[in-house]
Fold this sequence. Notes:
- This protein has a single domain, classed as P-loop containing nucleotide triphosphate hydrolases (Rossmann fold).
- The protein is of the alpha/beta class.
- The model has no long low-confidence stretch (mean pLDDT 91).
- The structure holds guanosine-5'-diphosphate.
- Guanosine-5'-diphosphate binds next to helix 1.
Amino acid sequence: xxxxxxxxxxxxxxxxxxxxxxxxxxxxxxxxxxxxxxxxxxxxxxxxxxxxxxxxxxxxxxxxxxxxxxxxxxxxxxxxxxxxxxxxxxxxxxxxxxxxxxxxxxxxxxxxxxxxxxxxxxxxxxxxxxxxxxxxxxxxxxxxxxxxxxxxxxxxxxxxxxxxxxxxxxxxxxxxxxxxxxxxxxxxxxxxxxx
Length: 195
Ligand code: GDP
């Protein structure tokens, strides 16, 4: 995919603010700090369009980035941030749940997990929920440059097993630092958009 134009559109706090132009949407889910902003920036070749997190967990908004006139990346608020109150978490859950279940232009969720660690309970719950509801999802293992190459297969196996990924499914290895996985990820996105 050749990105000619990428722009931040809106931090939406509710459905009334979602774009109306029906371009397909690709959402990014994952805990705070997993590398969502960095992945967006790498995918569109920009250093700083998506903010890299200064205050993890604070923003309860859907951040829309338009890519060419083709699609949106939608950065979901990071989950599993301990300092957010239970009430806030429940609100977060409802807001995101309705987006994921009801948003018609949503074509794919990229669920990010840090390749260094076994997926958390929140990661597991999120993945299981997406599968259960039939939301198309691909797992992206971020920060691949932080693990020695020889160790990577072992880490990917832990992710696959902890998430109980269906047979034939694999996490996609990604490094925003190196650009590793970028072309593969674009190819997968295109498959889900029928481009
Ligand atoms: P977000 O909260 O999910 O948006 O995470 P960020 O994109 O802000 O990344 C959190 C931290 O991890 C930042 O310090 C990034 O520089 C770092 N980071 C993100 N992706 C990578 C990566 O692929 N490699 C390395 N080495 N660091 C990364």
